[in-house]
């Protein structure tokens, strides 16, 4: 005689794996809006931010807002670049590339606008970051607690006192820099 196990639906929901959702539709910038210069293009599954001749800055913001999430994305750059990922607000950012103020690479480090500095520095980035090649970021934001993995290795565990509870995600082209950065496979898991 076979035994049948009946599992309540609420327990099934708890056991269900979290699914990521792409934040770009694969064709264009639908669902995103630039604040600043129009320097963003989407072609062949790659989002490119390239400074214009005036070196004006721009942040490409998602129209959707998020609370707790894990954001996975691939990025590529070469040379001098100052970019980053804004987490729910323009105040809290995870840096990609060279800090204008510190004049050195601060990839993976949080820049907090209200204090005007990097309160901590990501570790092991120099050995992990592959300039000119695709790199993978996994950024988990649970409230103000940020954990960042670069190419599969944790480089940051930081808690921000200034984190917004909910907001969009932004991708940056810094003003005053002649730069280009590319993003692809931009996916998000809520919760």
From TrEMBL:
Keywords: Signal. Pfam families: 3keto-disac_hyd (PF06439). Residues 1-20 form the signal peptide. The keyword Membrane does not apply. It comes from the Bacteria. The keyword Metal-binding does not apply. Residues 21-187 form the 3-keto-alpha-glucoside-1,2-lyase/3-keto-2-hydroxy-glucal hydratase domain. One of its GO terms (molecular function) is hydrolase activity. This is DUF1080 domain-containing protein. It comes from Luteolibacter ambystomatis.
């Amino acid at each position: 005689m076979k035994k049948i196990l009946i599992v309540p639906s609420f327990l099934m929901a708890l056991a269900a794996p979290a699914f990521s959702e792409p934040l770009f539709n694969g064709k264009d910038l639908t669902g995103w809006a630039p604040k600043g210069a129009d320097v963003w293009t989407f072609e062949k599954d790659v989002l490119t931010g390239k400074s214009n001749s005036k070196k004006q800055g721009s942040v490409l913001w998602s129209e959707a807002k998020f609370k707790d999430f894990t954001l996975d994305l691939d990025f590529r750059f070469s040379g001098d670049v100052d970019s980053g990922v804004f987490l729910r607000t323009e105040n809290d950012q995870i840096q990609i590339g060279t800090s204008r103020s510190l004049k050195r690479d601060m990839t993976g480090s949080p820049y907090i606008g209200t204090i005007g500095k990097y309160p901590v520095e990501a570790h092991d980035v120099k050995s992990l970051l592959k300039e000119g090649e695709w790199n993978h970021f996994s950024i988990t934001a649970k409230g103000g607690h940020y954990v960042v993995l670069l190419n599969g290795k944790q480089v940051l565990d930081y808690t921000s006192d200034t984190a917004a509870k909910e907001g969009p995600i932004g991708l940056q082209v810094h003003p005053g820099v002649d730069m280009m950065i590319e993003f692809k496979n931009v996916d998000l898991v809520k919760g």
